[in-house]
Predict the 3D structure of the following.
Amino acid sequence: MKKHFLSFVAMLVLAGGATPAFAGFECDDMGDWLGGACRHLSKTYREGDNEILLSGFAWHLPMTYTKEKREKLNERAYGIGWGRTFEESNGDTSSLVALAFLDSHKCVQWNIGYTWSTFWGARDSLQLGLGYAAMIVQRPDIASGVPIPAALPLLTFRYQNASLVTTFIPTIGGGVNNGSVLYIFGRYTLK
């Protein structure tokens, strides 16, 4: 556990390139593209609301896992996280998040990253959202525990400050018993 926590700290250091912007430094010396991204992340952090993330469920799709393997895997992906979420006037949201939860083998998986979603429907009713997550992930059974980048789609159901978010983790490397997981977690924005 200590080794994995230290890997997570290393991930935070790797992501620390954006930290000066969060502390109020300017992003103008980074060029058009990087400067724009830096300003967007800085605005999300500075003007966003705090958010609690609660991890809960990982469903290993029966068509890609044997029954015996599914019986050994953990589907109770309990965990907790924190984020800063900024909502645009059109309802689109940007978030900076850190999340830790129990993976399929009951080991802690650490994640830090950025999410973006666009929503349909009236803000005061149930809304459907689509988006993506771009993150750095660390877990002991992938890449020998070295943090790696990942990008996943997001499907969100949002009602006022509460959201139920789902993503699909595809099979990597092919074959049976590798990937194809539907992962579900909750978010609550503190306003």
